[in-house]
């Protein structure tokens, strides 16, 4: 069956003309961790191996729901703490995204979304602004247990997002509207950022989407 003109036009609008160029590989090696990240905004497979099974699960959600190829391999000093592995993964992922976006010509730039997961509801708004800023209002009770084994402390999610937005140059607002289950809250957060990223990085026009002419 032939595609309708409207469907063909929509497909042309959402398929980046420069998709092949919108990819990057970054590696960060310190005394605390060795992180390798590959991304491709054209979409594809998702793989995450960090030594923290729950964190792997969240990174898989981020890649799958953003439609971005995401391959992450992190070797960190988990015998000391999970903090280094999580933060350095965020730093490296942000660097890779910034490189893949290039000058951001034609991107939609802004996006927002409400994502539910059972009793949890998370609001996300982001801007590929070039100005790093994180507003994070996702509270957890003092009795919130680590998830997985080795354990992922719920508070580490904030450290991940802060590291990510700093090197990616993104303004990100992430707010919990309601929710009780720690797993559901975190998963809705990662899915929410993923869906917002999916919209924001989409090519929908030409030129830099800023009156300054640069992002």
Brief account:
A 4-stranded mixed sheet has the order 1-2-4-3, with helices on one face. A 4-stranded mixed sheet has the order 5-6-8-7, covered by helices on one side. Helices cover 35% and strands 26% of the residues.
Classify the helix fraction into a percent range.
25-40%
**Largest sheet at a glance?**
4 strands, mixed
- Roughly how many Å is the radius of gyration? 17 Å
CATH architecture: 2-Layer Sandwich
Strand content: 25-35%
Which keywords apply here?
disordered N terminus, alpha/beta, 8 strands, Ribosomal Protein S5, domain 2, four-stranded mixed beta sheet, 5 helices, single chain, 215 residues
What would your notes on this structure say?
- The protein is α/β, with parallel strands linked by helices.
- It has a single domain, classed as Ribosomal Protein S5, domain 2 (2-Layer Sandwich), CATH 3.30.230.40.
- Helices cover 35% and strands 26% of the residues.
- The protein is built from 5 helices and 8 strands, in the order αβββαβαβββαβα.
- The protein has helices at 5-14, 53-66, 83-101, 156-168, 182-200, and strands spanning 23-29, 33-40, 46-49, 69-76, 110-117, 120-127, 133-137, 171-178.
- The strands form 2 sheets. A 4-stranded mixed beta sheet has the order 1-2-4-3, with helices on one face. A 4-stranded mixed beta sheet has the order 5-6-8-7, with helices on one face.
- Helix 2 (53-66) packs parallel to helix 5 (182-200) and helix 3 (83-101) runs parallel beside helix 4.
- It is globular and about 50 Å long.
- It starts with a helix and ends in a 15-residue tail after the last helix.
- Residues 1-20 have low confidence and may be disordered.
């Amino acid at each position: 069956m032939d595609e309708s003109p409207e469907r063909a036009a929509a497909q042309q609008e959402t398929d980046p003309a420069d998709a092949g160029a919108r990819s990057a590989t970054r590696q960060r090696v310190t005394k605390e961790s060795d992180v390798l990240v590959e991304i491709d905004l054209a979409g594809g497979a998702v793989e995450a191996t960090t030594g923290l099974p729950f964190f792997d699960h969240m990174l898989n959600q981020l890649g799958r729901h953003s439609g971005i190829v995401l391959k992450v391999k992190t070797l960190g000093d988990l015998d000391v703490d999970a903090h280094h592995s999580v933060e350095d993964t965020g730093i490296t992922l942000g660097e890779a995204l910034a490189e893949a976006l290039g000058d951001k010509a034609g991107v939609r730039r802004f996006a927002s979304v409400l994502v539910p997961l059972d009793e949890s509801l998370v609001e996300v708004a982001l801007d590929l602004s070039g100005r790093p800023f994180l507003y994070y209002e996702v509270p957890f009770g003092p009795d919130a247990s680590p998830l997985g084994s080795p354990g992922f402390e719920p508070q580490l999610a904030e450290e991940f997002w802060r590291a990510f937005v700093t090197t990616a140059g993104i303004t990100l607002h992430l707010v919990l509207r309601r929710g009780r289950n720690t797993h559901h809250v975190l998963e809705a957060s990662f899915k929410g950022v993923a869906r917002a990223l999916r919209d924001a990085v989409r090519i929908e026009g030409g030129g830099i989407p800023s009156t300054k002419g640069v992002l």
